[in-house]
């Protein structure tokens, strides 16, 4: 399989834009039923669990929250972002996500953040 960094970056930008807009339907286009999100609370597999994960996250970081992209790196079929955010609910001085793609879909996604609830 040819590794296409441009495709990886395209999917990553789509994901981040959909996240910033709190657009659940659009964000879910990046995942399949086989996709898995690995979090500090455990693994979430499948579209239903992943959709709920993002719905919950959007409560903490609603559209319009302050967001700073600290780093975005794409290599082969892997994308990595480090970021910070501030909302009325929480301050997140550091968050990281790593995305492992298969074709144009996110197969594995790790996420962690240092969250300070207000």
Automatic annotation (TrEMBL):
<dbReference type="Pfam" id="PF12680">
    <property type="entry name" value="SnoaL_2"/>
</dbReference>
<feature type="domain" description="SnoaL-like">
    <location>
        <begin position="14"/>
        <end position="116"/>
    </location>
</feature>
<protein>
    <recommendedName>
        <fullName>SnoaL-like domain-containing protein</fullName>
    </recommendedName>
</protein>
<dbReference type="InterPro" id="IPR032710">
    <property type="entry name" value="NTF2-like_dom_sf"/>
</dbReference>
<dbReference type="InterPro" id="IPR037401">
    <property type="entry name" value="SnoaL-like"/>
</dbReference>
């Amino acid at each position: 399989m040819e590794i296409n960094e441009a495709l990886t970056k395209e999917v990553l930008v789509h994901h981040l834009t959909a996240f910033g807009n709190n657009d659940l339907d659009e964000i879910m286009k990046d995942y399949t039923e086989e996709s898995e999100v690995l979090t500090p609370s455990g693994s979430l597999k499948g579209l239903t669990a992943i959709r709920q994960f993002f719905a919950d996250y959007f409560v903490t970081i609603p559209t319009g929250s302050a967001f700073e992209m600290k780093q975005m790196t794409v290599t082969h079929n892997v994308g990595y972002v480090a970021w910070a955010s501030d909302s009325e609910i929480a301050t997140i001085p550091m968050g990281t996500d790593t995305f492992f793609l298969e074709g144009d879909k996110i197969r594995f996604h790790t996420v962690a953040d240092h969250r300070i609830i207000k």
